[in-house]
Amino acid sequence: MAFERQNLHSSRREGHGIQIHITHESAVTDVRPRLWLIEHMARPRAKTLSTASSEARTSQKASKPPPENLEKQNPRQSGADRFSRTVWLSGLLRERILKGVYRPGERIREIQLRSEFGFSNGPIREALQAVVADGLAERVHWAGIRVKTLDEKQLVELFQVRLALLECASDLAARNISADSRASAGVLKKELTTGFEEIEKDGGHISFNGALSAWLLSTAGNETLKELWNKTMLQTLIYVNASLIRSHGRKGRLLINKLIDAICAGNVSEARGAARALTKQTLLDLGVSAEL
Questions:
Q1: DSSP assignment, residue 145?
Q2: Nearest to 35 by CA among 179, 186, 171, 149
Q3: How do beta strands 144-147 and 137-140 pair?
Q4: What confidence tens digit (pLDDT) does each residue in 32-63 have?
Q5: Which residues contact 35 (CB under 8 A, 6 or more apart)?
């Protein structure tokens, strides 16, 4: 599990959706009953754009994406090389969006990506289109690609769908729990505990990268449900991560453990109830109170 430390506080602006800011101080809860637009999502603490670029280049070197000049060196391999660059870059962009390096509403510029990675327009545009297809970004007329922004109404609607899928997965997981799933649940709880302890110790942030939902869907054993979740719920990870940063997971962690324990015990009704409570708490930690 990759750890990244950062702090934030949130605020609201009239007529817009959720807004989340990074600071080096403790989290602040804004209780003013107005709508705000998401302008800032969690950035890694004390990281500038140049730092993020440096880290991305380091990651690029470790992952060894194919160099641009391979197309000229061996035209027969150009299609495969281009596909490799596209897959690698789309994965990196997806990770940056989910962790808040690219904030909702922020443009992802082709020229910046060309400068950072040295790729041609083709794989860059294909990678950008991939994150648009994921629902994480959108194409705006005369503005290129920007990270998708949700207002409060859209956010609530998205989490209503998430809750429906989460309750179904929790129900199936509790009915189908196996010895292997119980063993992996113990590992998951230890990883989550370590992450939450890091947050409490020095205000750091970790991205859980959907570890809970991955275990839940695997335990449920329904491939159609898993496919549906993966196609529609990726965007919710932005807000799940943000809620844990804002609240330090003080209430969320208890509900996560309750959900895992209920599933491991095969208690269907308690698992469904924990899934609902966890979803509602996620929105509350983002400053949104809504009926689900």
A1: E
A2: 149
A3: antiparallel
A4: 333 333 333 434 433 333 334 444 444 444 34
A5: 12, 13, 14, 15, 16, 17, 151, 152
Task: Report the alpha-carbon distance of residue 290 to residue 104 in Å, rounded.
Answer: 22
Number of Cβ within 10 Å of residue 201's Cβ equals 9
Q: What type of residue is 188? A: L
Does the global pTM surpass 0.90?
no
Yes or no: say if 21 and 246 are a contact pair by the CB < 8 Å rule: no
The residue type at 103: R
DSSP classification of residue 265: T
Domain membership of residue 22 (yes or no) is: no
**Structural domain boundaries enclosing 194:** 152-285
Q: Which of 273, 263, 270 is nearest to 174 (CA)?
A: 263
- Tokens 């690698």 correspond to what residue? 88
Which alpha helices (DSSP H) does 100-235 contain, by range?
A: 110-117, 121-133, 152-176, 179-202, 211-220, 223-232
Domain tally for the chain?
Answer: 2
Are residues 130 and 165 both part of a single domain? no
Residue linked to tokens 């509900």: 255
